[in-house]
Design goal:
Length: 202
């Protein structure tokens, strides 16, 4: 089935989002200027704001783009994994390669960056980051509950606390690796995520 052809306006919006997404992820909302957007895209202020109401709307679309890049990698790997144990391990495996280039957004984890950048300063972006965390938590919980139902995991496994711990370890690991410039710290922390998942097995 052929994909629906985008209109010129939709293509322009997509170009703006894809071009500015790495900038917002590296510099944050406040740190990204209009001239950053016009320089990167080669478009005028009028052209950008002819497609988006304001800078905040561009930033929101950029966040959606960046987080979708990560989500796609995770989901692709989960779909290929045979057991619920292997599906859960995908999170440690995917983020293990976070500091090694791969197809991750430039500038690091958009959820962590946006949560820190927008906290107390931009309620709309903070809300986007919160929704991304809650969606991530729900995905992990669903895998754990499915693993229990399939007889792979212990029946008394606490999906709520394990999902929160996994997210906290991964995001904390990324933050430590980034701020101390030691990617190996993330690798060490992800071994703990792996151990947490292994502890679910019957």
């Amino acid at each position: 089935m052929m994909e629906k052809e985008l209109s010129k306006a939709e293509r322009t919006r997509q170009f703006i989002v894809e071009t500015t997404a790495p900038i917002f992820n590296k510099k944050g909302y406040a740190g990204t200027s209009l001239s950053d957007l016009t320089d990167a895209t080669g478009l005028t202020k009028g052209s950008i704001y002819g497609n988006f109401a304001n800078k905040e709307e561009v930033a929101a679309a950029a966040f959606d783009h960046n987080s979708a890049m990560i989500r796609k990698q995770v989901l692709d790997r989960i779909q290929k994994a045979g057991t619920y144990y292997d599906k859960l391990r995908v999170y440690a495996q995917v983020y293990h390669s976070f500091t090694k280039g791969n197809k991750f957004p430039a500038g690091g984890c958009p959820i962590l960056n946006t949560a820190v950048d927008a906290d107390d300063t931009n309620p709309m972006l903070k809300d986007k980051a919160a929704h991304a965390v809650l969606r991530w938590k729900k995905s992990i919980e669903n895998l754990i509950q499915s693993g229990i139902a399939a007889g792979e995991f212990k029946a008394d496994a606490d999906a709520n606390s394990i999902s929160l711990a996994m997210i906290a370890l991964i995001e904390g690991g990324i933050m430590i690796a980034k701020v101390t410039n030691t990617p190996a710290s993330l690798d060490t922390i992800l071994q703990t995520v792996d151990a947490l998942v292994a502890g679910l097995k019957l």
